[in-house]
Amino acid sequence: MPKFRGPRSPKRKFCKLCFEKVTVVDYKDDRKLQRFLTDHGKIVPRRISGTCSHHQSQVTQAIKRARFLALLPYTSDQIR
Amino acid sequence: MREYESIFVLNPDVSDAQVDAEVDKIREFVTSKKGEVTEVQKWGRRKLAYEIGKNREGNYTLIRFQSDSMVPQELERRYRLNENMIRFLTVLYEKPSIPEERPERRSDEDDEDDDV
Asked: What is the nearest CA distance from B57 to chain A, expressed in angstroms?
């Protein structure tokens, strides 16, 4: 029985990285990592993005490395 | 021997020659420890996502090398001695995923591509 997912998301979520067959998430590719960040620069949780646990942990690690190298922001208001 | 990847960010005011000098120094050091530099990527000046010690831009360089595990440690110690260094990160190199594999695999599985 399909779970009720609310009126705004009728489709089932899936892991976009599994779909693209990504094996290693690159921390240097800030553009690709951007889509796992909110507008404020926070990491999008799995329950929103639908990322599988394997890829989510890779994404998290990659974002944290990219943040340290100032490729990605820690928060959005650091730009101001 | 393992393969490492090291990115360092220099002050945006340093010249191209200084970056090259730094790369040469690292190459020399890695080879002296029986390692081998496999790749150097100069990204050049790039905007920082946030300010680091009054700097808004940084000069990024990536170095990939094979070496024993003592080398990265010593390398980072050397990084710290350089006053123009604003950030550095050394991690184990992981082979990037090859996205080209996907369409290839699909044509094997699917019977739809019968255009030949």
From this structure: 9
CA distance A53 to chain B (A): 18
**pTM summary value:** 0.78
Q: How far apart are CA A35 and CA A42, in angstroms?
A: 11
**Cross-chain residue pair B96–A69, CB shorter than 8 Å:** no
Q: Are B46 and A66 in contact (CB under 8 A)?
A: no
CATH classification of the domain holding A47: 4.10.640.10
Q: Which residue has better confidence, A44 or A13?
A: A44
Report the distance separating Cα B16 and Cα B44, nearest Å.
9
B91 touches chain A (CB under 8 A): yes
| Residue A41 domain flag | yes
Q: How many domains does chain B have?
A: 1
